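note to self — DONT lose this again. spent like an hour looking for the file last time. sequence + predicted structure for the chain T wanted, 216 res
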Amino acid sequence: MKKVLAVCFILVFLSCHRSDNKNDSLTNNEGENEMIETILTRRSIRKYKPQQVERAKLDTVMKAAIYAPSALNKQPWEVRVVQNKEFIDKINDRFVAFARGREMQGSASRAAEPGFSVFHGAPTVIVLARDKNNHSSMLDVGLLTQNILLSAHALGLGTCPIGSVVSILTDPANKELVDLLKIPEDYEIVLAVSLGYSDESPVVKERYADKVIYME
């Protein structure tokens, strides 16, 4: 009987040990190939160099973006690449005015500080819109966004998804500004992405491997 109990204990211990190893492998940052390495080393960048992104790199990022999968291949997105500093500054000014007196979260909570930039000083801003009549469009734009983030990182560029600015880009009070983006009436802006050459090296943040469960 004691031998049986001992064997059971060993089996349980080994089972738990294997489970721990699986979680360890999920948080290990060593990539198996270039694609995996790109995914594991991407970071959200909140400080950029003033150097503008070259058109050739933008074209590559946009090509990767539109090759994202979408339900029934409807491609229910509109993408606007903005490099006009005056236009970017106008959007930032509208956001600062909007944030005044409001309780904002994240970096937006510093909107009252001098020199604040909702786009973190990025020289390029990508504005993404979805088809309001397509129930899968929000997910599809998310897939497109991930292609933007990863392809940009692969080219030595930094990015940061910015959702807080959507509140002013969908506000009718700013229609004359948003109209310059020429977004179709049946589309709505859902996200912006800052893009440029990184001027910081953020450390990796904790990933919650326990949210992944293998059903064997």
